Amino acid sequence: MRRGDGERTPGGAECELQILRGQPEAEGDRDRDRATGLDGGPLPAAAYQVGPFLLQSWALPHFVPNAGVRLSAPGLTVAYTGDTGPDPALADLGRDADLYVMEASDRYQQAPAPPAAADRKLHLSAAEAGAAAAAAGARRLLLSHFWPGNDRAASGAAAAAHFSGEILLAEEGMEIPLP
Rounded to whole angstroms, how far apart are CA atoms 21 and 37? Predict the structure, then answer.
């Protein structure tokens, strides 16, 4: 991603920031047993500095270990959920973020919808992402991790029913100016 002044920020231009190494590429990839931070250490972990950024992380619900990540520097905060289901920690993770990158699998758009876990939802819908971003007071919401074949415009509309800020729909190679 690029800041408003054109400077590249850590994490690259990937829509799903690639801040977390060790994240499964798909639900079926259970070979990886933990999320890792930029320094290779396990996440979630105590906050630490990465260049000008403070990296904070939160454990979030998913089929395999997952940590949401928040990078903050003076004048800029970016938060990223990775794969997750609804969780109260999403509000703290994205609190006042300039950009909140959230999964929006919207599995319900599939007919028949893939079965969800019996005890907890482990993926967000776009509506849930919009509600969480609104609760966090985020300025912009980037929906990502769309289920293949889903109607992204419908996902954006579902998020907009709950979130009044700018909503972006992730696309491969997308670059987003940051403040």
Answer: 7
Q: pLDDT tens digits, residue range 94-119?
A: 999 999 999 998 777 777 766 665 66
The rounded distance, in Å, linking the Cα atoms of 27 and 55 is 26
Share of the chain above pLDDT 70, in %: 74
The single residue listed with the structure tokens 């999964």 is 103
Q: Strand, coil or helix: what is 37?
A: coil
Between CA 19 and CA 61 the distance in angstroms is 18
| Cα–Cα distance for residue pair 46/27, rounded to 1 Å | 27
137-to-81, 95, 163 alpha-carbon distances in Å: 15, 6, 9
> How many whole angstroms from its chain centre is CA 84?
8
- Name the residue type at position 145: H
Per the listing, tokens 């996440």 go with: 43
